[in-house]
Amino acid sequence: MVVFALLFASPEFAGSPICAGCHAEIAQTQAKTHHARALSEAPGGRWAFGAGAQAITYVSQSTEDTYVEHGLSWYRKIDGLALTPGHPDSRGVTYRTFAPDAAILRCFQCHSTGMLRLGAQRRIEPAELGVRCEACHGPAAAHARMPSRHNIRNPARFTAAELNQLCGQCHRMPPAQGEETNFENPWNVRHQPVYFTQSACFRKSDGKLSCLSCHRPHSDQPASASLKCAECHPKPKHQSNVSNRSCVSCHMPVVNPSPWLSFHNHWIGIYQLTGPQANPLRPLKQWPGR
Ligand code: HEC
Ligand code: HEC
Ligand code: HEC
Ligand code: HEC
Ligand code: HEC
Ligand code: HEC
Ligand code: HEC
């Protein structure tokens, strides 16, 4: 019995093929998502980061101790190559694998599932490519051996704030108390939990609005298909007629941090989108609680 208890307590990863044995339908849908394809092996020993929804950046090992992030990335908008964000030219940037900020290890961590291992020549070897089951449900070998709802994390039972933390592991955490965020920097808009938690909709709805109100966790179904604005705002007071445009286009405006990338501002608010003061980064009036 002691051995059994130890097995039970060890936080081992099983891998999505094991989960698929019993949760076939979810596994099939999830495998098609951008999450599942966020990292893959490309020809020439390169790693391809990004499913290609917007872009793919290549990374390869250059020596036993270094990795190179390639200077040219592929962008869907142009169906071609252009400079990787943050790179001054196309030569690529070299990282030491064990640099103090672990930048390259962290790329693999957010784009894969399970523990990273080091192989021959100190090659980084992800346990499983892409964002799969246990990235969100936690290591679950024990559950796979003896299924029960008591030995698996089900985020359906999470509060809206806990979901921000779960998704925020990779999409970036909401700012801690007193932490300053530069909301005018368009690169930060891709950090949805950071912006979302500033919204009056989130702050004033008693936990009824979360990432899961609009996003399905196992598919790429567009959020706009499940928008629930009207549930809380049946009759918004508009000074002019806005009827033929979507709520999102004005209240979660698109921001382009580069000509080839776009993100939706998750700080749901009232923006000045036309005229000389146009700014899709920060709402006109802030919620007085801030
Ligand atoms: C041997 C079959 C089996 C395997 C393998 C398996 N599960 Fe399950 N899973 C079940 C069963 C049966 C339930 C329902 C348990 C219950 O209602 O008590 C369940 C329930 C769940 C739930 C919902 C729990 C809840 O709160 O209702 C999640 C999430 C889950 N499994 C995830 C996983 C993941 C992730 C993996 C792979 C690491 C996995 N399962 C592998 C059989 C399995
Ligand atoms: C382990 C890291 C990780 C976790 C945890 C995670 N994500 Fe992601 N997510 C990613 C990565 C990486 C991508 C980019 C995929 C790609 O390459 O297009 C992504 C993409 C997305 C997308 C865009 C999908 C599309 O159609 O292009 C949505 C929406 C999303 N995540 C929502 C969530 C939500 C909601 C949660 C929490 C329930 C969550 N994510 C948890 C890493 C993660
Ligand atoms: C903290 C977790 C995290 C780290 C570290 C990380 N990524 Fe990502 N990455 C994400 C998430 C989340 C997305 C999805 C962004 C979105 O669509 O909002 C993403 C998206 C991408 C994309 C798709 C294009 C885009 O810009 O959305 C590429 C390419 C990419 N990452 C490459 C990398 C590379 C290369 C590294 C290391 C230098 C890296 N990532 C480090 C979480 C991370
Ligand atoms: C991006 C995070 C994420 C990933 C990746 C993920 N799940 Fe889930 N899963 C969730 C969330 C969130 C819920 C709660 C769904 C809800 O409340 O609508 C959930 C619910 C479940 C449930 C409970 C039944 C249900 O449909 O609500 C099962 C079973 C499950 N997931 C299995 C899996 C399996 C198997 C995989 C891998 C093939 C997987 N999940 C990948 C986030 C994720
Ligand atoms: C779960 C309920 C809920 C949902 C869903 C919701 N909101 Fe809100 N929203 C609120 C609450 C509560 C407030 C604060 C109202 C107040 O201050 O009296 C608010 C405030 C706003 C404001 C005013 C912002 C400000 O800073 O004063 C706008 C604009 C708005 N919502 C638009 C939207 C749009 C567009 C959607 C859909 C994408 C949406 N909301 C979805 C609850 C919600
Ligand atoms: C009120 C609805 C709503 C909520 C709540 C919401 N999103 Fe979104 N999200 C959207 C819409 C609309 C889009 C635009 C694309 C689409 O329709 O799927 C989007 C797009 C995204 C994308 C793709 C990149 C981008 O910014 O365009 C990611 C990643 C994402 N959301 C993550 C999250 C995470 C993580 C949370 C919780 C912190 C969250 N979202 C909460 C509505 C929402
Ligand atoms: C063309 C841009 C535009 C569209 C589309 C739009 N809004 Fe607005 N909304 C605004 C502006 C601008 C304001 C500030 C008041 C004003 O000037 O009319 C506002 C104010 C609001 C407010 C705060 C006022 C109030 O009633 O409390 C809410 C809530 C709101 N909108 C929700 C929505 C919802 C829900 C939709 C989709 C059905 C939507 N809006 C579509 C531009 C838009």
Descriptive overview:
With 290 residues, the chain is α+β, with helices and mostly antiparallel strands. Helices cover 26% and strands 17% of the residues. It has helices spanning 2-9, 16-22, 24-31, 103-111, 133-137, 141-145, 160-171, 192-196, 200-203, 211-214, 229-232, 247-251; strands at residues 39-42, 46-49, 55-63, 66-69, 72-75, 80-83, 93-96, 112-113, 117-118, 124-125, 128-129, 254-258, 261-264. Strands 1, 2, 3, 4, 5, 6 and 7 form a 7-stranded antiparallel sheet that branches. Strands 8-11 form a two-stranded antiparallel sheet. A two-stranded antiparallel ribbon has the order 9-10. Helix 2 packs across helix 3. The longest helix has 12 residues, at 160-171. The model is unreliable at 1-9 (pLDDT under 50). The protein binds heme C (HEC) (7 copies).
Keywords:
290 residues; alpha+beta; 3 domains; 12 helices; 17% strand; binds heme C
Q: What percentage of residues falls in helices of 4 or more residues? A: 25-40%
Distance between the termini: 54 Å
Unreliable residue runs: 1-9
Quote the beta fraction.
Answer: 15-25%
Whole-number mean pLDDT: 92
Overall morphology: globular
* Major β-sheet profile: 7 strands, antiparallel
Radius of gyration: 21 Å
Number of domains: 3
Quick synopsis:
The chain is α+β, with helices and mostly antiparallel strands and 290 residues long. It has helices at 2-9, 16-22, 24-31, 103-111, 133-137, 141-145, 160-171, 192-196, 200-203, 211-214, 229-232, 247-251, and strands at 39-42, 46-49, 55-63, 66-69, 72-75, 80-83, 93-96, 112-113, 117-118, 124-125, 128-129, 254-258, 261-264.
